[in-house]
């Protein structure tokens, strides 16, 4: 029986169209999903939107729309972006989906019945941009440390989740399950903060009503993160999907690690639900060395991203340019350079040269020595530890070897059909390994070299 693999992206706030940062997480998850499909796993890949909360409500009010209508209009932009980027997800969940709302209520009830929720009063700071609580010492000049905007002071009746009760369990989890938070350098930050102590978490609001009502007090709506995190679980309560829980990995950005590594497992522990196996937090992209920001025009939307050098080049660049887990800087020129130097000059050149030679001279089956230059075991290991830049390095190292093979052996003079057979197989292997990253081009290469009559064909990557 095929093994199951369940992977998720964060659910994005549908308050604007998706940009390169959102695309990055989603593409990375798609690459991992496709890789696991190659390995023979049955994959469930979840993405979606985080529709509730004050941030969305305010964005909707600004344009005089109801939050439902506002999000209904933005959700298609996300679906459209993922389709254009060839992201093959299995479900697009919205926190306004009825099945999700039901599960959130069920879990809240469980946690309440367990005695882990109590009523009190919240007094403190809240950043709507982050949808997060802050203490006085977190603030910089009375402003949110992330958004640098003036921060709200809240005082309202609220239900609290006994997060503090789970401090020991969480620390035990991080020790016993050393890969629960990855990469390692991010784990240390979380562990140190948890060691400092955890305060109970305010999990309900009364001052607005765009959210899921608490099952035990309908004057309150659930805190947007309590609601949102549960999407990962509720998507697996559908018939036939239960087998996918617990998730194999939640792919997220480093900005939301705390919510995923602390609140989320504590909530699940309280509700008696199995924990996900891994939280992987990737780094952040800047744009021309500046923080991505719409107001300052430092933003690349998905359509723009694709228009620079095409879908596959965008996907390739994002995973090739920086180690997954580290921060990176996005620039159009850097993308174009990779497109020209690596995809067009190396890969495109190999494909068209070899196909052209085979078209002229044909192939003759033989034992393949060329393919031994490819270290598949190493690639598999790198892939499974999400070292995508290194995976691509290995594959492109082999592309170089193949190009040299043609050159050194002067195949256009020798017409060596056996060597052309080796090169044909090599191209097929390269296409297979590159498929998670550049699915459209990889499919073309596969098709080209599996044809009865191999032809030179069109140029794969036109130079820019
Ligand atoms: N709605 C929450 C997530 C809830 S998950 C239960 C949220 N949404 S978001 O729209 O702000 O998207 C956050 C995610 O987008 C980040 O975690 C990260 O994955 C991605 N990125 C947004 N901007 C980014 C960069 N500049 N660089 C890299 N990734 C970025 O938080």
Q: How would you characterize the overall build of this protein?
A:
With 464 residues, the chain is α/β, with parallel strands linked by helices. The chain has two domains: 4-282, HUPs (Rossmann fold, 3-Layer(aba) Sandwich); 332-450, Isoleucyl-tRNA Synthetase, Domain 1. The chain contains 17 helices and 16 strands. The protein has helices spanning 20-38, 54-62, 67-84, 98-113, 167-176, 184-195, 224-229, 231-234, 257-271, 302-309, 311-321, 332-361, 376-384, 388-408, 411-414, 417-434, 439-450; strands at residues 4-12, 42-49, 91-94, 117-127, 132-134, 152-161, 181-182, 201-202, 204-205, 213-214, 217-222, 249-253, 279-282, 285-287, 290-291, 328-330. Helix 12 packs antiparallel against helix 16 and helix 14 runs antiparallel to helix 16 (417-434). It starts with a strand and ends in a 14-residue tail after the last helix. The relative contact order is 0.11. The mean pLDDT is 96. 5'-O-[(L-methionyl)-sulphamoyl]adenosine is lined by residues 10-13, 21-22, 24-25, 50, 228-229, 231, 252-253, 255-256, 284-285, 292. 5'-O-[(L-methionyl)-sulphamoyl]adenosine binds at residues 10-13, 21-22, 24-25, 50, 228-229, 231, 252-253, 255-256, 284-285, 292.
How many runs of DSSP E, i.e. beta strands? 16
What level of helicity do the residues show? 40-55%
Instruction: Determine and state the CATH class of the largest domain.
Output: Alpha Beta
Number of helices: 17
Q: Which parts are unreliable, with pLDDT below 50 for 5 consecutive residues or more?
A: none
Q: For the CA atoms, what is the radius of gyration? A: 25 Å
Shape: elongated
The biggest beta sheet reads: 6 strands, parallel
What compounds are bound to the protein? 5'-O-[(L-methionyl)-sulphamoyl]adenosine
The structure class reads alpha/beta
Mind telling me which CATH architecture of the largest domain this is?
Answer: 3-Layer(aba) Sandwich
């Amino acid at each position: 029986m095929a093994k199951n693999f369940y992977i998720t992206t964060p659910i994005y706030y549908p308050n604007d169209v998706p940009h390169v940062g959102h695309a990055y997480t989603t593409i990375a998850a798609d690459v991992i999903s496709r890789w696991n499909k190659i390995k023979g796993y049955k994959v469930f890949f979840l993405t979606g939107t985080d529709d509730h909360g004050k941030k969305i409500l305010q964005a909707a009010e600004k344009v005089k729309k109801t939050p439902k209508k506002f999000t209904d209009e933005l959700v298609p932009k996300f679906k459209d972006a993922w389709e254009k980027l060839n992201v093959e997800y299995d479900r697009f969940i919205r926190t306004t989906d009825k099945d999700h709302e039901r599960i959130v209520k069920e879990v809240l009830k469980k946690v309440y019945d367990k005695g882990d929720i109590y009523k009190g009063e919240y007094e403190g700071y809240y950043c709507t941009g982050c949808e997060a609580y802050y203490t006085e010492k977190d603030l910089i000049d009375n402003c949110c440390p992330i958004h640098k905007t003036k921060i709200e002071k809240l005082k309202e009746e609220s239900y609290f989740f006994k997060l503090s009760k789970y401090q020991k369990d969480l620390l035990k989890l991080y020790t016993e399950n050393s890969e629960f938070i990855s990469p390692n350098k991010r784990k240390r930050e979380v562990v140190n903060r948890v060691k400092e102590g955890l305060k109970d978490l305010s999990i309900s609001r009364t001052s607005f009503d765009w959210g899921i009502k608490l099952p035990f007090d309908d004057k309150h709506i659930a805190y947007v993160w309590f609601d949102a995190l549960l999407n990962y679980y509720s998507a697996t309560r559908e018939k036939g999907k239960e087998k996918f829980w617990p998730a194999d990995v939640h792919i997220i950005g480093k900005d939301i690690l705390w919510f995923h590594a602390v609140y989320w497992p504590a909530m699940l522990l309280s509700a008696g639900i199995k924990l996900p196996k891994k939280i992987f937090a990737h780094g952040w992209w800047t744009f021309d060395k500046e923080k991505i920001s719409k107001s300052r025009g430092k933003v690349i939307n998905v359509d723009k991203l694709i228009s620079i050098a095409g879908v596959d080049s965008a996907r390739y660049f994002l995973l090739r340019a920086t180690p997954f887990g580290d921060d990176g800087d996005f620039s159009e020129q850097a993308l174009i350079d990779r497109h020209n130097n690596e995809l067009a000059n190396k890969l495109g050149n190999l494909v068209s040269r070899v196909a052209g030679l085979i078209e002229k001279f044909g192939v003759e089956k033989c034992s393949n020595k060329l393919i031994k230059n490819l270290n598949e075991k190493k690639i598999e290991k790198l892939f499974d530890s999400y070292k995508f830049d290194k995976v691509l390095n290995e594959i492109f190292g082999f592309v170089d070897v193949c190009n040299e093979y043609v050159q050194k052996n002067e195949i256009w003079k020798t017409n060596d059909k056996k060597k052309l057979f080796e090169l044909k197989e090599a191209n097929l292997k390269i296409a297979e390994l590159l498929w998670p990253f550049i699915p459209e081009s990889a499919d073309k290469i596969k098709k080209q070299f599996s044809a009865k009559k191999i032809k030179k064909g069109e140029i794969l990557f036109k130079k820019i």
